[in-house]
Fold each of these.
Amino acid sequence: MEAVVFVGGVSLGQSATSIPIAAIVGLMCGLVCGGIIYAFASRSTLSTFLIVMTNLILLIGAGLFSKAVGYFQVNTFNRLLGVDVDVAGGDGPGS
């Protein structure tokens, strides 16, 4: 999963030579995460491992859900007021 995230993020806006670097970094991050999970699983009991991993997966799911709700809110705002609302231009703070 990490490799897909790294390659997808790079391949959209960069040249083709940067894709192998992103794939290698994604694979390395996946191996490190897998090694950490394996080390934790081998040192803990099964019930502790399952409780911790379930909580981790729930946190990831909650983050994805909150991002989806935010995207729906932005979409509704853009459909009501138009996408040109934020490009009004200005010279003050935040513009």
Amino acid sequence: NQGEAEKCRDIAKAFLSKGEYAKASKFFEKSLRLFPLAGVKALKEKADRLAAEPPPSSSSHQKPASSHSHSHSSGGSNSNGNADSGATTPTGGSSRSYTPEQESGSKKILSLSKRSHYEVLGIERNASGTEIKKAYRKLALKFHPDKNSAPSAEGAFKAISTAFDTLSDASKREMYDQVGHDAAEDQMKQGGGGGGGGFGGHGFGGMHGFGRGFRSHGNMHEVSPEDLFNMFFNGAGPGFQAQFGGGGQSRRRQAQQQQQQRQYQQQQHTAGAQGGPSLQTLFQFLPVILMLLMSFSSFSGTSNQPVFSLHPTGTLQHKRATSTVGVSPDISFYVDRSTFDRTYKPPTSDMYHKIEKQVEGEYKQFLAHKCTNEKAYRKNRIYQARFGGAKAKEAAEALKMPSCEELDERFSNSKGRQYRS
């Protein structure tokens, strides 16, 4: 690993000399992970310090020219006014300006994103869902690239969106709190971007109930009817494309819709019917209109509502625990009391037993995902402890894996399979 570490160090030095401090810091960090070369830590701290400093604004270079023009013409006062405002016009022909405060604020968000999602949003670890949403809306409005033209604003907005996406979901937040920020980030990187994998395939990975969504800045967000309405009527037009459901099925449905659309357009062109363009336009919008109607019906109807949840959510607030024969006991789940008691009474009925078997299966899957994350976190800590001495290694190896232990206690098979192994 020492040779690879030296390569990363040399690459980082090259970026540092070019003034690309963020990239330099990234490769210095990679070098340290591979092998603790002398002097690399100090160079990384230097790169981080330079990256956190706001770049010199063009207005600061224009001040001498402004004062010079002031001494020769009456238009100098206007030039000084522009310089004093602190606004910076980016080079490259863009007319949008930004202030040094906007850039320094964006860099601060990027710096906090390396430490904690809670610090990014500026909230406590016990913040409620309402507080999380309030903090996100405030920051999103401030750092959205449409509102903030600073070079680092887009990265800051992505960090804010990632923090909100993680903390606003109960399952993702629980896993994040359990394994910590660094392990969560490592799992996300190993699993790949775009919500396809990583973090044990659950919560952060985009499966087990998180498949519905559209891609926004690399994160998966739940689609509401309002999202569909805005995407459709706020300029998306006929070229609008959104990904719903699983990846393969959504692409097949999209291809089928496009093929049907082409066939219909060919029929209209052959028939030469009057008023064709309006019908074609309507047909182009039809898939989105249908999805909008289906989304409204799924949100408003009760037939698609889940019977139970492992966590309190929506109308599922009444707590129960498994108790029937043949089911692992005392697994908590939540139901809508009025509809559940009416449909699944008495507890000795076959339907009730089937529900508890489903609860058991889902809870086992939930524990398995958490166990995978705990193993990955422990493995990562042991790897990092190689340079920390014997005590650090012992502490890492002694890390408990409560989900794996519960899996062993509840679900170990007759062959004695150990989930902790």
Amino acid sequence: MPKSCSVPKCRTKPDDRKSFYKFPLHDPERLHLWLRNMGKNAWTPTRHHYICHKHFTPSNFTVCRGVRYLKKTAVPTLFKKTKLLGETLSPQPITSTVPIVSKYIQGSKVSKSPEEEEEEEEEEEDDISVESFNFEQQQVEHCYHKNSVSKEQLEATVVELQKKVKIMQQHHHRHLEKLEGLEKAVGQLRQSKLLYEERLQCLERAYLQANATITDPEQIVTVIYEDSEHFYTNVPRERF
């Protein structure tokens, strides 16, 4: 059956994806506080009546593994035209009424049929599923925000890497130009070396030819002085 809030003038509907909690029928004292704060002391709830989460303070809940649960000591205190529990309770001790005790408690335990227990478990699972849906929705929004931030950071990183790649390409181009210049210089040096070796070989051949032609140094005629009419020579003397 569809759930609805039993608090007067509360318009919370199951379609709002809100949480609904059953009355503590097994705890007469806490049930009396619930009814008193609601202003319905003469009303007797059943296991098919609920109160939505709007009437509980955040301190009445506990979160375990992303699922919000209502504490076993929780008491609703948020109602229209009423004050919080600490202001509305009288200093007199609270005593349980006879109808509640006689109807819901026999000794210290409450006897439930298997059908009732199964139905209550299904209702609790419904409450948990609603809370899980809300938590998962928050997680999806949080993950979307994180992904957006990561995308911006990634784009900034890509831009920075592109700048570094451009700088490295410029350095590489300069190194290639220097390498080409060095290769040209080496080629010129090799060519100069070949020319020098050729000249050296030519000089050696000329020296050898000259040495082979002149066998006796004394036969060399040296021109000492020469003018327009006469010239003087140094002729070596014949050996006796």
